[in-house]
Amino acid sequence: MKKCYFMGIDIAKATFDFCLLSREGAVLWRGRFSNDASGIKQFLAQLEGGRWKPSLIHFALESSGVYGKALIGALHQVALAVSVLNPAQVKYSLERTAPWPSACLCAKSLTTGRKRGSHRRTQRSNNVVLPRRRPLFRRGTGEKA
Q: Is the pLDDT of residue 40 over 90?
């Protein structure tokens, strides 16, 4: 199913900011919730009760270590499309001509033309969401890959 909307999420230790963009890049909805179980539950409830069908939204957030695991898990649990982005890619993929919040930059990076495979989906391993990674060294040798 083709996605019509893109939501960027900026994760911090205590809160997360979000920004919903249309395919054309217009800001439709912005806000902030606490980064705990109750905040995530409120976010999902407002998302379900909102004007936009969640299955038509592609969610994207910068990799932020452990802070985003609960939200990523909750989005996966309700079968929504989530991409975890490399922060350097987000920062340098767009020209910062306006002071965009980081959440909007994540969403905007999805709306722009990008190389195939530059936004990798997460994989699930033992109920923990992990980004896919390349090995640093060749197996059996001490050489870099």
A: yes
